[in-house]
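User: Can you help me understand a structure? I only have the sequence.
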Amino acid sequence: MSKYILVVDDDALLRRSLAFNLEQSGYRVNTAANAEDALKLAQRDPPDLVLLDIGLPGMDGLDALKEFKDQFKVPVIFLTARRRELDEVLGLELGADDYITKPFDLNVLLARIKVALRHLEPEKQVSNVNEPLKVGDLVIDPRSHTVTLDGKPVDLTPREFDLLHAFALQYGIVISVEDLLARVWGAEFVGQPQVVYVHVRWLREKLEEDPNHPKRIITVRGVGYKLQPQGV
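Assistant: Let's start by predicting it. Here is the structure, written out as tokens:
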């Protein structure tokens, strides 16, 4: 299975370029423009490695590093500007696995990534987010990527599964469309709410008795969606 890398940087061009090149190199990639969205993505889908910019808006890279280390025990490589040598040293003291200065050579970055991934423990336990989730008669198992409804398997696409998993992690709580985009699709899809609308419709067609009058995935007008337990 491909290793999963989470790229966290507020530079949209850099995110797209890194994501493309890493995917070409055989990695699975997601992106976030800030640390807060990155941590939400990681809670749903824990990465094998994080590429983390130090100078982020909101929570900065040093604070984010601590969260990634505490919550996910995941290797972190800092992306940093040359003028921030003090930050680089401080980042390594706080537990970053490596750093690379911008602009960087892609081959050098790929080599650093391979080294960091080699140090992963085979039985790395990141958190309990990979445990099966039971929401009424619906069971979502992230390890096997399977869903059952009243004991019967439901065939979902990978993105439909990711969306349902995001709902299940906070069932009964309303999640905004913007949050769903950030958690499931990543930074490059922010501002494209129609992606969520379409996938919610597809999920309802597979999970609801009457997709036109849903009882599981509820629309809260002007706010977002929530997953309600059924069959209990």
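Now, to help you interpret it: The first strand starts at residue 4 and ends at 8. The CA atoms of residues 45 and 183 lie 9 Å apart. Let me know which part you'd like to focus on.
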